[in-house]
Design a protein that fits this description.
This protein is mainly beta and about 260 residues long. The chain contains 4 helices and 17 strands.
């Protein structure tokens, strides 16, 4: 090479943007079903992670990013409230998307545990429902019936931000990790809600939602909500913040200069 290679050019080859690139999605549709789980079951699921359980409630979600500026995709998953030292938020513990580039983008850049799946989300005035399948097998399904007068009292105090994730990159020639960071990311302040409805809900989980032989269990379905709003991943709030490095690596120049 006649000049120093700019490594950022490699994102063009990878097919997804870098972690500092903003994007938007108008009219994001999102169905969330709030559940109460078994505390011991949730703690057992979290055991391989650095996180502690912060609540026995969790959320099963499907979102349609069909208008996203980088390209259309569906997102889905299970969100569990967690603590990491003095930080409290939620962890995307299971997550599925339907585009290879969006799976790689969220997983490699921010540490979301994304896997590929086929996802649907259908809404009418009478009902909202969605499914997540892979190779024809159901991973989970959720549904809600919008109901006038139904409220979210059973989960109104439950925040689904910030996201606390493990951003880990294994060694290429050994059993450990080259990178093992805890990141925090919170896009909620840039979201503009257009409409939201609540109602009784149903959830069907399968044994695909398991780790180390521990399968996610539902004790009670609290209800659901369907929202439509304008999503934004801005430079101010969409970029993740590294809150800890378990390998003790020094921060990058960009991270060290960030307020």
């Amino acid at each position: 090479m006649s000049k120093t290679y700019d490594t950022k050019q490699f994102f063009t080859y990878l097919g997804y943007p870098s972690g500092d690139q903003p994007y938007w999605c108008k009219d994001l549709r999102s169905l969330s079903v709030y559940c109460r789980g078994d505390r011991a079951n949730l703690e057992a699921l979290l055991e391989p992670t650095p996180f502690e359980l912060a609540d026995d409630r969790f959320v099963v979600q499907i979102a349609d990013f069909g208008n996203a500026t980088p390209g259309a995709f569906y997102d889905s998953g299970v969100v569990i409230p967690v603590r990491y030292r003095n930080h409290r938020g939620v962890n995307y513990f299971f997550e599925y998307e339907d585009q290879p580039w969006s799976v790689a983008f969220g997983r490699e850049v921010w540490g979301y545990p994304k896997q590929y799946a086929d996802i649907t989300l259908t809404d009418t005035a009478e009902s909202v429902s969605g499914t997540v399948h892979r190779s024809g097998k159901l991973i989970f399904g959720i549904s809600m019936t919008p109901q006038q007068g139904y409220d979210n009292a059973a989960w109104a105090d439950m925040s689904t931000y910030p996201h606390l994730q493990v951003h880990a990159l294994p060694e290429a020639n050994g059993p450990g990790f080259r990178v093992f960071e805890i990141i925090s990311r919170d896009t909620s302040s840039d979201f503009v809600l257009n409409r939201k409805s609540f109602g009784p809900a149903n959830v069907e989980l399968t044994d695909t939602l398991s780790v180390n032989g521990v399968e996610l269990k539902v004790v009670e379905v609290l209800g659901g909500e369907f929202s439509v709003g304008d999503y934004a991943c801005t430079v101010a709030n969409g970029i993740s913040t590294v809150i800890d490095d378990l390998l003790g690596n020094p921060p990058s120049v960009e991270e060290a200069e960030r307020p």
